[in-house]
Write a structure and sequence with these properties.
Strand content: 15-25%
CATH topology of the largest domain: BirA Bifunctional Protein, domain 2
Number of strands: 23
Structural class: alpha+beta
Number of domains: 3
Shape: globular
Largest sheet: 7 strands, mixed
Strand order of the largest sheet: 3-9-10-16-13-12-11
CATH superfamily of the largest domain: Bira Bifunctional Protein, Domain 2
Number of helices: 18
CATH class of the largest domain: Alpha Beta
CATH architecture of the largest domain: 2-Layer Sandwich
């Protein structure tokens, strides 16, 4: 099945089973804005809990804050967002659709990479165990041709984005013969810049309003609170400040479901350190953040680092952790060494001294900063894409199952009375009452047991407990495992012991190596 078709099924599955709904759905929705349903919000909250605890529990020198969405407008002048937070946009005159020029070119680069991977996959299938992939990539004429085109395009693109050079970006689009996916034509307008910040007005009357912005990132709330946290927490370098919060960007080309939205949620941590030590911490956070992802068990080969060749003006190092989505490797997290840019800018614009007094060096200086920033919604999507599975079973039937990492599953255990009578629902509720204080446990009594199993598979519930007539006699139940569908008879009093460790966030945290 084509990956595009798989992705469409995932989007449909999200709505059908209460994970994600189009916002304002009864009014035909609002483009690039989504609501999380009853199962989606549980999965999302579990992701956030896993991230938060990995920061504040595993690191004694990291604390959290919750900064407001509305901030003084000068914050965004100091950060550079007012003057430079732009995307290069281009329109197709025939379809009347607008696109990001950089995305069109990146997609073209991705097409060359896909052609290379197809050649490699075809050869691997042909030659089997004797296949030497490295040698094939170095010698195969078709691979070399695609690689040459990819590298030449990438070099031109990187150079054009330095300015950015808008004329050069358009010329690349024309030279590559990139067509509008709707009209199929190359009738493009010139490329122009578009600021992504939403603005609004604050004030009691029309005459006394101030223009303010919905924050386009959460990081600035940390920077402007640096002194507050450092002094009240008596924090010593190195230390970090983290937060989870909403951010807003007026994405003209929002696409790929919740991957790129106008209202989204970020999990960010700013780690402040002595100047000159930032690259050590940059490497540390690369290692730690990759370990956080890999602990979920979604396949180490589905992750890769993508180092930035074009650095932001404030950075001296930057990399992305990319995950293999149905539409290719895409960024889910960024790790950036931001130097002392942000604190220095806010010191300049606010007129306040933002320095750290180092008692060991007996001097004041502006700390350097290493940032880790992960999109909650993108992480949600990567988990859903990896977990969605269609299986053909031995008996000829099929099932759709979400093989979610067990600690992230919305419901950890479903208790199912075999029939909705004879005292079984009451016994099932008794079991739920004993487990619900330890992990999310639901009871479901409607429909046949087979249909209920399939429904729980579809929302990713890792454990189902079936209560039958024998349960009333010997206090044992049938425990079913989601992924293997294995069933075993266990005493009711053993359920918590069997399930709790596997579904706890702690079980994930223990897998993270932070040495």
């Amino acid at each position: 099945m084509a990956q595009e078709d798989v992705f469409k099924k995932i989007v449909s599955h999200c709505k059908e089973y209460g994970f994600v709904f189009p916002s304002s759905d009864i009014y035909d929705g609002l483009a690039a804005v989504y609501d999380y349903g009853q199962n989606g919000v549980e999965l999302k909250n579990n992701i956030k809990q896993y991230w938060w605890q990995s920061m504040v529990l595993l690191h004694s020198n990291i604390v959290g804050i919750d900064a407001s969405i509305f901030m003084h407008p000068t914050v965004w002048k100091a950060s550079g967002h007012v003057d430079a937070f732009n995307d290069p946009l281009i329109d197709n005159r025939d379809s009347k659709k607008r696109y990001r020029a950089d995305n069109l070119i990146e997609d073209q680069i991705g097409k060359y990479e896909e052609k290379i991977e197809k050649e490699v996959a075809k050869a691997a299938k042909k030659f089997g165990d004797s296949f030497d992939e490295a040698k094939f990539r170095e010698t195969n004429p078709r691979v070399l041709e695609h690689q040459k085109k990819r590298d030449e395009l990438h070099a031109r693109y990187t150079e054009a984005m330095q300015g950015p050079d808008l004329e050069a970006l358009k010329q690349i689009i024309l030279d590559e013969g990139i067509v509008d996916p709707i009209s199929g034509t190359k009738n493009w307008t010139d490329v122009r810049q578009f600021n992504l910040m939403f603005s609004t007005e604050m004030g009691a009357s029309a005459e006394a309003t101030n223009k303010i912005y919905l924050r386009p990132e959460t990081a600035q709330g940390i920077f402007v609170n640096f002194l507050n946290v450092q002094k009240t927490g008596r924090m010593k370098l190195p230390f970090g400040i983290c937060q989870i919060g909403k951010a807003f960007r007026n994405e003209i080309v929002a696409r790929q479901f919740v991957f790129r939205m106008r209202e989204f949620e970020q999990m960010e941590m700013q780690f402040f350190c002595q100047p000159g030590t930032e690259m050590k911490w940059f490497e540390y956070w690369k290692k730690h953040r990759l370990a956080w992802h890999e602990a979920l068990g979604m396949g180490d080969d589905n992750y890769r680092f993508h180092d930035h060749e074009k650095l932001a003006h404030y950075a001296n190092a930057a990399t992305d952790i990319e995950f293999r989505m149905p539409f290719g490797f895409k960024e889910v997290e960024g790790i950036h060494s931001r130097t002392d840019f942000d604190l220095s800018q806010h010191e300049k614009f606010s007129g306040r001294q933002i320095k750290y007094f180092d008692p060991e060096r007996n001097e004041n200086y502006t700390p350097y900063d290493v940032e880790t920033s992960i999109g909650v919604d993108r992480m949600f999507l990567s988990v859903m894409c990896h977990s969605y599975t269609e299986e053909e079973l031995e008996n000829g039937s099929s099932r759709v199952v979400l093989k979610l990492p067990e600690p992230l599953a919305p419901v950890k255990c479903a208790v199912l009375p075999l029939v909705n009578k004879d005292g079984l629902p009451e016994k099932a509720q008794e079991i739920v009452n004993g487990l619900k204080f330890h992990f999310n446990t639901h009871m479901e009594a409607k429909d046949s047991i087979g249909k209920r199993y399939r429904r729980q598979d579809a929302i990713g519930t890792p454990f189902c407990v079936t209560v039958d007539g024998d349960t009333l006699n010997d206090n044992t139940v049938t425990l079913r495992y989601r992924d293997s569908m294995k069933q075993e008879r266990v005493p009711v009093e053993k359920l918590r012991e069997i399930i709790e460790d596997r579904v706890s966030i702690t079980s994930l945290l223990k897998k993270i190596d932070i040495d």
